[in-house]
UniProtKB/TrEMBL annotation:
Residues 18-196 form the 3-hydroxyacyl-CoA dehydrogenase NAD binding domain. It comes from the Bacteria. The gene is fadB. Residues 198-293 form the 3-hydroxyacyl-CoA dehydrogenase C-terminal domain. The chain holds residues 300 to 593 of 716 of the full protein. The keyword Transcription regulation does not apply. This is enoyl-CoA hydratase. GO terms for cellular component: fatty acid beta-oxidation multienzyme complex. Keywords: Fatty acid metabolism, Isomerase, Lipid degradation, Lipid metabolism, Lyase, Multifunctional enzyme, NAD, Oxidoreductase. GO terms for molecular function: 3-hydroxybutyryl-CoA epimerase activity; delta(3)-delta(2)-enoyl-CoA isomerase activity; enoyl-CoA hydratase activity; long-chain (3S)-3-hydroxyacyl-CoA dehydrogenase (NAD+) activity; NAD+ binding. The lineage of its organism: Bacteria, Pseudomonadati, Pseudomonadota, Gammaproteobacteria, Oceanospirillales. GO terms for biological process: fatty acid beta-oxidation. It comes from Litchfieldella anticariensis (strain DSM 16096 / CECT 5854 / CIP 108499 / LMG 22089 / FP35) (Halomonas anticariensis).
Length: 294
């Protein structure tokens, strides 16, 4: 793990047009962040409703900036117009960097990444916002793996400063450099990490979620656990954080971690998190998780 991306410190971002695939929690956040810092971004999804939701979220965040006096309404309209929602790859020929942020499923990601590679120019950098899936694994089917790396944002994107830039075995220095520079242009703090399931942050976070799951399976009260962890000094407890992440996303991510580190992460029985997901308690995304949301 290289703690600093200092090798790339001086490089300015050459990304004048970005694109994000998926307009969900993360895709919508990435589009907002890019647009708000002045880089136009295409936001592609397969569902019209997802595009509408993504835009609605971005509008809400810009409106908050206006309320706080940080933007006027003209600036808000201008920044919002940096996000172009689309259901097609029509304009992808002019994109400098793509962030894939579709569901955390290796098969879906493989299909989407090989598809988009055909739609972009030869020099376009492809990145994945995967939480856990190995970048080398996702690079396997690509024609230009040297142009591919991980660009892992955290949720909520507009508030979390860190971005993990994950270097695969075949990733070129140029691709890492361009991704680091774009993350900086988005106002983020990039770190360059080597490839493994879960990278750095989720290798720490998912065993913690596993520990929390066991605690409540053994009878602990999740609200009390949250309160204790807040007292411990963390900004939020594990139950609330799982509601933010999304139970389905956490389950998919945990499966990948369990495959990569079976001795530490695999469970034969269902975790409490899996049971929550099975009962459609997905968290903030559908209004009910450990807590209820309006
Ligand atoms: P989400 O379920 O909110 O959104 C996924 C979106 O992808 C949906 O809108 C869906 O319609 C769209 N989609 C599916 N197939 C598509 C395709 N072929 N082309 C375009 N769009 C498609 O999921 P999310 O929480 O935003 O997660 C997205 C990615 O980000 C996952 O890889 C996840 O692991 C990662 N991630 C999530 C979090 C988190 O806290 N939720 C944090 C960091 C990274």
């Amino acid at each position: 793990v290289k703690k600093k991306a200092s090798r790339y410190e001086k490089q300015a971002s050459n990304v004048t047009q970005a694109a994000v695939l998926g307009a969900g929690i993360m895709g919508g956040g990435i589009a907002y962040q890019s647009a708000s810092k002045g880089t136009p971004i295409l936001m592609k999804d397969i569902k019209e409703e997802a595009l509408e939701l993504g835009l609605k979220e971005a509008r809400k965040l810009f409106a908050k900036q206006v309320e706080r006096g940080k933007l006027d309404t003209g600036e808000m309209a201008e920044r919002l117009s940096n996000i172009r929602p689309t259901l097609s790859y029509g304009d992808f020929g002019h994109v400098d960097l793509v962030v894939e942020a579709v569901v955390e499923n290796p098969k879906v990601k493989d299909a989407v990444l090989t598809e988009v590679e055909e739609m972009v120019g030869e020099d376009t950098i492809l990145t994945s916002n995967t939480s856990t899936i190995s970048i080398n694994r996702l690079a396997q089917n690509l024609k230009r793996p040297e142009n591919f790396c991980g660009m892992h944002f955290f949720n909520p994107v507009h508030r979390m400063p860190l971005v993990e830039v994950i270097r695969g075995e075949k990733t070129s220095d140029a691709a890492v450099g361009a991704t680091v520079a774009y993350a900086r242009a988005m106002g983020k703090t990039p770190i360059v990490v080597n490839d493994c399931p879960g990278f750095l942050v989720n290798r720490v976070l998912f065993p913690y979620f596993g520990g929390f799951s066991l605690l409540i399976e053994h009878g602990a009260d999740f609200q009390r656990v949250d309160k204790v962890m807040e007292r411990f000094g963390w900004p939020m407890g594990p139950a609330y954080l799982l509601d933010v992440v999304g139970m389905d996303t956490a389950v998919h991510a945990n499966e990948v971690m369990a495959e990569g580190f079976p001795e530490r992460m695999a469970r034969e029985d269902k975790t409490a998190i899996q049971v929550m997901a099975d009962n459609d308690r997905l968290g903030q995304k559908n209004g009910k998780g450990f807590y209820a949301y309006e």
